[in-house]
Design goal:
By secondary structure, the chain is α+β, with helices and mostly antiparallel strands. The protein has two domains: 337 residues, GroEL-like equatorial domain (GROEL, domain 1), CATH 1.10.560.10; 147 residues, GroEL (3-Layer(bba) Sandwich). 42% of the residues lie in helices and 13% in strands. It is built from 18 helices and 16 strands. Strands 8-13-12-9-10-11 form a six-stranded mixed sheet. It has a three-stranded antiparallel sheet with strand order 3-15-16. The two termini are 29 Å apart.
C-alpha cells in the first residue's frame, strides 16, 4: 500500500504514511465487508482476510509508523474485538486534515489544541444522543429467531449517566488541555488501559423492565446476522444455566469459547453448553471408555512436557504455542519423566487432564493406554470454569499434583463423529461438569479453511458488542447518525470561531481545523454508504451535504440522518428509492458508546503523536530555547 503512494519527503512523511496505510480499511467498513487475498511473493503462501486487523497482521509493516499503527490496532483488538477499521480510517482522515493545516501555515501547537477541542465537541455530542438499552424492549425473551424482528421506533434520549460517563473518563487525567490550550496526552505504548468493573458487586435498584436481548442484538449485528444469532443463543444458554439466577439482561463473554471445525458447511454452526474439543482417534476411544462416568480432573497451566519451564508470573503478549517434536524426542530423561507423571496420575486416580498449553504426543499416547484423557490447548475460561465446578487447583507442573489439587465431577462425552475434508474421520468431545455451568462453546464450521478465521472474528466482534451494550446500558445511534451529529456540532463550533466578536485573535485558525476534522467524519460516513452498493462516492458525499444543510434541529437527528442509507443510488438515471416518513423511520443500527469513544480517542492520539514526531524530525528541538518544552505533546 505504501509503495503505491507518492511520498513527499519535504513534508511530514509520518502523516503521509499514516494516510496511505489507512487506505486498506475502505473495504472493511460497513455491513458489506469484502474479503482480501494477501500473497507472500517470496514463499507463494496466501491468506484470506476480512478485517483491518487481519490485513495488517498479514502485511507485517516494517516502517516506524506502520509498526506503531499495528501495535495500536492490535491492542485495541485484544480488548474490544471491533472498531479497528474505523480507528485506522479516521486516523488516516485526520492525518490528511493535519497535513492540510500545515500547508496552510497553521502551527503544530494550534493544530493540537483545535483538534483536542474538536474531540471534546464530539464526545459531548455522544452524551446527548445516547440510547438507553432499557427502552429497547419490554420483554426478556431471547430466541435465536429474534434476529428476524424489526426494531420499533426508539426515541433517542439525553442519558444523564451517559454524559457523566464520558465526562468522567476524560476528566480522570487521560486527556486535558492546559492553560495555553495545548494538549496533554497520557498514553501507554499500546494506547489503552483495560478497565474491569464487577457489575454484580454494585447494588442495582429494582427495574420494572428488562432490555430485550434479541432486539438489542438486531441493531448490533452490523451485517453479521449469522454470527449474532450464535451470540444470542449463547446468551440464552448462559441465562438458563446461571446458578445465581441473574436475568438474561447480562452476557458474560469471558465464559464463551469457540471450536473451529473445518470441512463442514457453515449451516452446521451451533451453540452448546460445556466445552467442545476436537480430538484424535486415540483420545476418542478413551472418551468412549469414560462416558457416563464422574471423572477426576487435573488442571495444568502451561505445557505438559519434560522440557517446559515457567516463563514468569507476567503473561507475555503475542506469544504463540508451537508444537516442536524435537522437544519430545526420546531420551532417558524424558522416559523417566513420563514414567513418573503417568504413575502419579494413576495413583491420584485422575481420568482427565486439561492442559492450557501443549501436550507432547508421547504423553498423550502413554496416557491413552491407561485410559487417561489428555486435552491440550484449552482456553483460560475452560480451565477457570472446571476449577470452579470441580474444586480442582491448577498447577504449573504435573509433578506438583496432589490429592488436594485433583477435582471431581467432570464428564467427557462424544458429541459428534463426522467425516471432514477428504473423508478423514474426526471426533469432538464435550467436556462438562455435573453441576450447571455457564460455560458455552460456539461451533464454527466452513468448507473453506481460509474463511474460518474471518467467521471467528465476526462472532467475537458481535459477542463483545452485545456484552458491552448490556454492561454499559447505553448505546449510540449507528448507520452514521452519531457521526453526522458530531459534524453538525463541529460546524456550529467552527462558525462561532469566525464571528467578529468573541476575541478569536488568540486562535484564528480554530474554525479551519474543526471543519477539516468534520470532513474526516463525513468521508467516513460516505465510504460506508459506498460500501452498501447503493451509492457512488460523489453521490454519497452529495447526499450527506444535502442532509447537513437541510437539518435545522426541528426534528430528531436520528430520524433525519437515518434517511441517508434508505435512499439508494440506482443505475437507472440516479433515481432514488422512496424514503419513508419520519414516523416510520427507526434507528435499526446501534454502536457501542465505549468502543466509539475509544476508537475516536485512539485515532486522534495516533495522529497527534505522529504529527509531533514529524515536527521534531523536521525542525528539531532546541532544549535551551525559551518555551521549547511548551510545544511538546506530553506522553
Amino acid at each position: 500500500m505504501l509503495a503505491s503512494s507518492i511520498i513527499n519527503h519535504r513534508q511530514h512523511v509520518g502523516l503521509q504514511k499514516l494516510s496511505a496505510l489507512a487506505g486498506i480499511t475502505h473495504s472493511s467498513l460497513g455491513p458489506n465487508k469484502k474479503y482480501k487475498f494477501i500473497q507472500d511473493e517470496a514463499s507463494g503462501e496466501s491468506a484470506l482476510a476480512c478485517s483491518c486487523f487481519r490485513v495488517l497482521e498479514n502485511l507485517q509493516p516494517t516502517c516506524g509508523v506502520g509498526q506503531l499503527v499495528y501495535e495500536t490496532i492490535q491492542a485495541h483488538q485484544e480488548v474490544y474485538h471491533t472498531g479497528s477499521g474505523c480507528l485506522l480510517f479516521l486516523a488516516g482522515a485526520w492525518s490528511r486534515a493535519a497535513l492540510e493545516c500545515l500547508q496552510r501555515g497553521i502551527s503544530v501547537a494550534h493544530i493540537i489544541s483545535a483538534m483536542s477541542e474538536g474531540m471534546d465537541v464530539c464526545l459531548d455530542a455522544c452524551g446527548k444522543c445516547g440510547v438507553s438499552t432499557e427502552s429497547l424492549g419490554e420483554s426478556c425473551t431471547v430466541t435465536s429467531q429474534g434476529l428476524g424482528l424489526h426494531l420499533s421506533k426508539i426515541p433517542t434520549v439525553e442519558a444523564p449517566h451517559a454524559s457523566c460517563h464520558l465526562r468522567g473518563t476524560r476528566g480522570a487525567g487521560d486527556e486535558t488541555l492546559n492553560a495555553s490550550g495545548r494538549r496533554k496526552v497520557k498514553l501507554s505504548r499500546h494506547f489503552h488501559e483495560t478497565r474491569s468493573v464487577d457489575v454484580s458487586a454494585v447494588p442495582q435498584p429494582p427495574r420494572p423492565e428488562l432490555p430485550d436481548v434479541a432486539h438489542i442484538a438486531v441493531g448490533l449485528s452490523h451485517g453479521c446476522v449469522s454470527a449474532m444469532k450464535l451470540v444470542v443463543e449463547a446468551s440464552r444458554i448462559q441465562s438458563e444455566n446461571n446458578p445465581q439466577g441473574v436475568s438474561c439482561s447480562t452476557f458474560d463473554v469471558t465464559k464463551v469459547v469457540t471450536c473451529v471445525l473445518p470441512g463442514l458447511p457453515e449451516e452446521h454452526a451451533s451453540v452448546l453448553q460445556g466445552c467442545i474439543v476436537l480430538v484424535s482417534d486415540e483420545q476418542a476411544s478413551v472418551a468412549h471408555h469414560l462416558k457416563e462416568q464422574r471423572l477426576k480432573v487435573a488442571l495444568i497451566n502451561g505445557d505438559l512436557s519434560d522440557t517446559y519451564r515457567h516463563l514468569g508470573f507476567k503473561s507475555l503478549k503475542g506469544v504463540q504455542c508451537v508444537r516442536d517434536r524435537s522437544h519430545f524426542s526420546s531420551s532417558n530423561k524424558e522416559e523417566e519423566w513420563l514414567e513418573e507423571t503417568v504413575a502419579l496420575l494413576l495413583d491420584l486416580e485422575v481420568n482427565l487432564v486439561v492442559v492450557s498449553g501443549l501436550a507432547g504426543e508421547k504423553v498423550i499416547q502413554r496416557c491413552c493406554r491407561r485410559h487417561i484423557l489428555v486435552v491440550d490447548k484449552a482456553k483460560a475460561p475452560v480451565v477457570k470454569a472446571l476449577a470452579k465446578a470441580t474444586g480442582a487447583v491448577p498447577v504449573t507442573y504435573a509433578t506438583q499434583l496432589s490429592r488436594r489439587c485433583v477435582g471431581a465431577g467432570a464428564k467427557a462425552a462424544i458429541w459428534r463423529e463426522f467425516r471432514g475434508r477428504e473423508g478423514k474421520p474426526s471426533t469432538t468431545v464435550n467436556i462438562s461438569t455435573a453441576e450447571s455451568s455457564e460455560l458455552v462453546t460456539v461451533i464454527l464450521t466452513s468448507c473453506l479453511d481460509g474463511k474460518l478465521q474471518a467467521l471467528e472474528d465476526q462472532f467475537w466482534a458481535c459477542a463483545h458488542r452485545l456484552h458491552q451494550a448490556l454492561t454499559g446500558k447505553v448505546l449510540l445511534p449507528g448507520a452514521g447518525v452519531t457521526e453526522m451529529l458530531c459534524v453538525h456540532h463541529l460546524h456550529k463550533r467552527a462558525e462561532r470561531q469566525v464571528e467578529p466578536r468573541g476575541g478569536t485573535a488568540a486562535h484564528p485558525y480554530r474554525g479551519v481545523v474543526l471543519r477539516l476534522m468534520a470532513d474526516g467524519l463525513i468521508d467516513y460516513v460516505a465510504t460506508v454508504m459506498v460500501n452498501t452498493g447503493m451509492f457512488s462516492k460523489v453521490r454519497a458525499r452529495t447526499a450527506v451535504s444535502q442532509q447537513l444543510q437541510a437539518y435545522t434541529g426541528s426534528q430528531g437527528i436520528a430520524a433525519k440522518f437515518s434517511q441517508l442509507l434508505l435512499a439508494g443510488d440506482q443505475d437507472n438515471g440516479g433515481v432514488s428509492s422512496p424514503v419513508e416518513s419520519d414516523e416510520a423511520i427507526a434507528v435499526k443500527v446501534y454502536d457501542s458508546l465505549v468502543v466509539k469513544q475509544e476508537v475516536w480517542r485512539k485515532a486522534l492520539d495516533l495522529v497527534l503523536l505522529v504529527l509531533q514526531t514529524d515536527a521534531e524530525v523536521i525542525t528539531g528541538i532546541d532544549q535551551k530555547a525559551d518555551g521549547a518544552q511548551g510545544h511538546l505533546m506530553l506522553l
